[in-house]
Each structure stands twice: as C-alpha cells, then as structure tokens.
Amino acid sequence: MRVLDLRRYRLLFLFIAICIVFGVIMLACNFVLRILYPLHYENLIKKYSQEYDLDPLFVASIIRAESKFDANAVSPKGAKGLMQIASITGKWASEELNILQYNEHMLFNPNINIKIGCWYLNKLNKEFNNNTENVLASYNAGSGNVTKWLKNNKYSIDGTKLNEIPFAETREYIKRVNRNYNIYKYLYKK
Description:
CATH class of the largest domain: Mainly Alpha
Number of domains: 2
Family: Belongs to the transglycosylase Slt family.
Organism: Paramaledivibacter caminithermalis (strain DSM 15212 / CIP 107654 / DViRD3) (Clostridium caminithermale)
Domain Transglycosylase SLT: 44-154
GO biological process, one term: peptidoglycan metabolic process
Helix content: 55-70%
Largest sheet: none
Shape: elongated
CATH topology of the largest domain: Lysozyme
Transmembrane segments: 12-37
Order of helices and strands: HHHHHHHH
Distance between the termini: 54 Å
C-alpha cells in the first residue's frame, strides 16, 4: 500500500491557510469599520439626498464629520444637531422650506436637521457649480468666506477653484469629510 506524501503539497496548504487568514482579517476589518463608520438615519439620509440631488454617502460623511451621528450635538459656536446647522441657517431654511412654527430646538430633530442640511448642501452645490471642495469649505467656513477667497489671487488663480484655504480648521474638515466619504463608499456602495 502506497502512502501519500503530503510534504509535496505544503506550499499549497500554506497558500490556502494564508488566504483563509486574510479573508477572516478582511471580514473583521469590515465589521470594525462599520462600527466606526455607521450609517444611522439611513432612511432620512436617502430621502433627503434624493430630494436634493445629493449622494447619500456624501451626506453621511458630513454627518459623521459634524456630529458623529449625535442628534443632540452642539458645537462651540452653537450649531445644532446631526448636520450642525447654525441658528441663522436654520431660520433661513425654515422660511424657505415653509417649516411651520419653527424654533431652534427643532434642529435636534433628525428629520428636520437632515432636511435642512441637504437643502443647504443643494444650495451650495448650485452656488459653487458642484465643486465639492468649495461646497465643503462653504459648509464649514461660510459661503461668504469662500466667495472672498475665490476672488483673491492668493487663494484662487482662476476664481473657480481654491488653491489654498486660509483656515486650518476648514482644510482639516475637507480632508476628514473626504476620508469619511471614501470609507463610506468602500463599506456601503452597492
């Protein structure tokens, strides 16, 4: 009787073992990443993203950067809720969107907050010709600042694209949202 010599197949076994370990690690990484990068309020995000012609994963990326999905978040400057809506933006949006009996406390309501945030992002997209960097800079630093920067040769050569952003916080914000967006696309894009 002849015995099969398995030593001849050790490289194949090693390769299979490495593939299994790699697969387990990838599954664990995806599991951990989905915990770190959740997609809470998915139905509201999809609803208002569709209504205002936005990528829902982009909106989720902003929410993660702004509040880490904490509906009760308040910034040091007083911005409120998931998308960190400033009081003045909330009041303006409530008038434009005919939100009856509006008050600032409504910004803690995820439905209202995401609706206003998506409406505002849509406005910024129109104002800045869908230039994502300008939109994000405006969302963080205000559209007035971005408009001034675009008119200044120090920050923009052609008046449409920012070559430099003078606010460090805004530069970091754009990097953070873009990183979030890349991770959300990896985890949730179907």
